[in-house]
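ok trying again, last paste got cut off:
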Amino acid sequence: MNSHSYQTALVTGASSGIGRAIAQRLVKEGLQVYAVGRDANALEALAAECKVTPLAVDLRDPSALADVFERVEIDVVVNNAGLLPAIARFDQSTPADIDAMIDINLRAPLRLAHRALDGMMKRKRGHLFFIGSSAGRFPHPNTAVYGATKAAISLFCDSLRCDLLGSKVRVTEIAPGRVQTSLYRTALGEQGANEKLYDAYRSIQPEHIAELIATAIALPDFVDVSRMEVFPTDQAPGGSQIVSVK
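nice, full thing came through this time. structure:
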């Protein structure tokens, strides 16, 4: 029997990596999970493995999810989808990449949270999660816009908690260091990401982040884990310092 009263969850960026692991973990928690992503084939593959409802949606237009919130009482929203199209100095970033990161990393989660809160506030029940990043808490080179969007999410979570006092709706930010996902593979390519970031290091795995989500949900509704910063043991915050122990 679940220790919480939540029955449904919506997870963005569920096509791969952290989002996929979270969707799988929440199914194990007994939740009906709506798995949102752009890759319809990957979502169908996930649905074949566990009982999720796949929703192929481009979050640049989150209004596509309006029907779900009208039909279903969504108790948990995990804003996980993130974009890092290139690792480059700000002056060498393209306007298209800047706009894309703002759209996916910042505008989409705020709009989705706004929509979800309409029902959560009325029911006095709900939990909003935001997957931030150490890049939003400490400066990292060549990721200025990405870091700015994640820093905005971090302060938004703090301010939102002030707005929601007395509502029984919880807000949790998870700000991880290096997690082995496809995020950097977009910017560096598969081989480049493995060689530069993963092969010689012990990185956090997506299922570890999923476990933190499950832990926060399982606590009594009067306990809100407002922020979790989690790093590989071999990485220290600030300047992205990480060592190889292999």
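cool. The domain at 8-227 is CATH 3.40.50.720 (Rossmann fold). The mean pLDDT is 89.
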